[in-house]
Amino acid sequence: MQTSKLLLLLLLSCFVATIEGSKKQVSAMYVFGDSTVDPGNNNFIDSAFRSNFPPYGRDFVNQVPTGRFTNGKLGTDFIASYLGLKDLLPPYLDPNLTDKEIVTGVSFASAGSGFDPLTPTLGNVISIPKQLEYFKEYKKRLEGMLGNRKTEYHMNNAFFFISAGTNDYVINYFSVPIRRNYTPLTYGQFLLQHVKDFIQNLWKEGARKIALVGVPPMGCLPIVITLNSHNLFLERGCIDKYSAVARDYNIMLQHELFLMQLNFSNGAKISYIDIYEPLNNMIQSHENLGFDEVDHGCCGSGYIETTFMCNGFSLVCSDPSKFVFWDSIHPTEKAYFRLFMLARPKIDALINA
């Protein structure tokens, strides 16, 4: 019995040491993308795509609405904490960020953005190329603090996280006719060219550990169900027509990332993070996972409300942890935490590569 206890303690200590070792290998975390990873950059630009007002942030520290499109933390906050960098990943545009704060990472993401250059113009938000410009600006500030050589090492050991693409379909392709000269397949290929260009540019700036999130089952987003259901109240099932587009895009994305990986040198590693199956499982097997509501959000009716439509006058559910979605598009903190937990093996493999 004593031997068994000693063996268990040894295994646990090895497990803890492995996690601690993983944390030490990451110098910082840099995030690019849309509202799923924007902690408040849109607070500092002239755009209606904001969430720096109640009831957003209802379950955040001191119930502060920071600009995160959920009731609490984002998945990237959980990742930054897991990597031992900081509890919350701040927005780059926050003018109050200190040098000490920015060294361990920031988010450049902007709610409403996407890979298609047209997408961010629809909401007057920060485009992906502009996010890259901000990153280069950030890098110069870092060089002034650390010097060129240490900054290069810092970048090579940082974790780069990208989450975008949903807005390109939901806000852009499916909603306005400008891109209808593309089929869903060719539009996906058009997006992927921009994805590849962006990753290549990050690699040129020193990124060596890059994670890119696929798109979710778009037909299961409450707002998509609302806009496409024959009966708003009685037919709230996922619309497979839209989820099928997401599946096709994710397959093409994984193929392109595989080809890019083959061509990269200097130890660069790209990892695909699946969000489709984890979110789909949350919705289809919700009762086993502690969720009661999956076809509408916690804020207001949950059918259409998001950003300024989810506001201080909106009725809010009593227990967001029972909901997969906070508003008609964005997951709750509980859902984000579960997505993070399911992505952890991929994150571990990437940072230890």
Automatic annotation (TrEMBL):
Belongs to the 'GDSL' lipolytic enzyme family. One of its GO terms (molecular function) is hydrolase activity, acting on ester bonds. It comes from Vigna unguiculata. InterPro entries: GDSL (IPR001087), GDSL_lipolytic_enzyme (IPR050592), SGNH_hydro_sf (IPR036514), SGNH_plant_lipase-like (IPR035669). This is Zeta-carotene desaturase. It holds the Pfam family Lipase_GDSL. Keywords: Signal. CDD domains: SGNH_plant_lipase_like. Residues 1-21 form the signal peptide. Coiled coil: none annotated.
